[in-house]
Every structure is written in structure tokens, then in C-alpha cells.
Amino acid sequence: MKDTLKHRGMRKNLADIVAAKGVTDNKVLDAIKTIPRHLFLDSSFEDHAYQDKAFPIGADQTISQPYTVAFQTELLEVKPNAKILEIGTGSGYQTAVLMHLRAKVYTIERQLELFKTTSLFFNKMHYRPKKMIFGDGYKGLPEEAPFDGIIVTAGAPEVPRPLMAQLKVGGRLVIPVGTDEQIMTLFVRKSEKEFEKKEFGSFRFVPLLEDKN
Ligand code: SAH
């Protein structure tokens, strides 16, 4: 597991690509420049790690495209110490971006294989999310609610109600909604009962699945 000057150069270039696509938050761009994405991938994909592309990570899942990770993170408006719930840990790359912004991250993954691999990888890398949970993110994490932000990294056929309920007033939920294609959707909780909804273009994610297999 090596991080070299060459990798750092490629990351800088990747951050420039992501910025050119419209991401302006410097803290988010700094996360892209800093986090060694190649270590989150199988070594066979290492050469491609700094392209702005999604890649397979096993168990039929993918590491999201860097632009998508950056865009979702920007929409979440993470403040230091914010309590953030992530649904779909996957490779842990998005989790690492959130931790780089000094969020307290609770992350849920429903694929046991990925949950185990990423837990071990985080230990090795000394990445410390607040909690990593093996389970169904559809239900959120009621025992730790409410959250300042919730980010879903899989395509949701519909918005899981528990996630709306687990947001603080003022909190933000960023979720790709749809089946074949997803519309990136932001909900801001305005009060106990009111949510403001904004939509931001289409993306493609692996599906958010409700039941365990
Ligand atoms: N942020 C990850 C994205 C991985 S793809 C990364 O960049 O690597 C989406 C992930 O969501 C997959 O790992 C998938 O197993 C997981 N997932 C799908 N449905 C889920 C659910 N109901 N609860 C928790 N995780 C889920």
C-alpha cells in the first residue's frame, strides 16, 4: 500500500477535473487532492484510480465516480463535528471524504463482504468513523438520530421515510432518487413538518436494496 508523488500529482489533476465540472467547495476539492483513492480499489484497477470514473469493488457494487462523490458532499454542506449518516459504505471512499471534512460519520453497509473488507481497510489506514454498521440503511439509524446530514450513495426507488424523520431541523438529506436513472435530490428540513426539496440532474447508481441477502 503505497502513496507516491505520482499518485499525488494524479489526484491534483483529478481535483481540477472535478472543479471544471462545477464543484467549487475548496474543502471538498482538498479532500479529492488528499485521499489516496487508489488504495480503495483492487490493485488491478490502481492505474485507473484517478480517472473520473466509477469502478467495480466486488459484490456487484461500485466505488462512485469522484465527481459524484464531490457533488453529493458539496450539497451536504458538512460543518466540522457535524453528525452525518451515510447509507452504502461500499469502498469507504465517500466515508473518507466526509471524515476529511471532520464530520462524525455513521455509515451503514448491507453487503457483508464489503462491510468486512472496508472495516479492515479502515483499521489499517487509521480512518475512524464514529460507527460502521452492517445492516439495512433503509431504516436509517434511529438510535443515533437526529443527524445534521444524511447521504445515500445508492439509487433509491423512493425516499425512505425513516431517513426524513431522522434529520435535525436545518439538516440536509442528499439522495439519488429513481430506478433506471436517478435524480440527485436534496431535502432540507425547514421545521418538524416542512421539507424543502431541490433536484439536481441525473446520475446512475447501483440500487438501494431494502432486504438483506
Ligand atoms: N460510497 C460508496 C458507494 C458504493 S455503491 C463508494 O464510493 O464506494 C452503493 C453501496 O450501497 C453498495 O456498497 C451497496 O451494497 C450499498 N447498499 C445498497 N443498499 C443498501 C442498504 N439498504 N443499506 C446499506 N447499504 C446499502
From TrEMBL:
Q: Which gene encodes it?
A: pcm
GO: which molecular function terms? protein-L-isoaspartate (D-aspartate) O-methyltransferase activity
Enzyme Commission number, as recorded: 2.1.1.77
Q: Which InterPro entries match?
A: PCMT, SAM-dependent_MTases_sf
- One Pfam match, given by its short name, reads PCMT
Q: Which residues form a coiled coil?
A: none
Its predominant location is cytoplasm
GO biological process terms on file: methylation
Protein's name in the database:
Protein-L-isoaspartate O-methyltransferase
Return the similarity comment.
Belongs to the methyltransferase superfamily. L-isoaspartyl/D-aspartyl protein methyltransferase family.
EC class of this enzyme? transferase
Instruction: Name the lineage.
Output: Bacteria, Pseudomonadati, Bacteroidota, Flavobacteriia, Flavobacteriales
Active site positions: S64
- Quote the function comment for this protein: Catalyzes the methyl esterification of L-isoaspartyl residues in peptides and proteins that result from spontaneous decomposition of normal L-aspartyl and L-asparaginyl residues. It plays a role in the repair and/or degradation of damaged proteins.
Q: What catalytic activity does the UniProt entry give for this protein?
A: [protein]-L-isoaspartate + S-adenosyl-L-methionine = [protein]-L-isoaspartate alpha-methyl ester + S-adenosyl-L-homocysteine
Q: Which domain of life is it from?
A: Bacteria
Cell compartment(s), UniProt = Cytoplasm
List membrane-spanning regions.
none
- Keyword line: Cytoplasm, Methyltransferase, S-adenosyl-L-methionine, Transferase
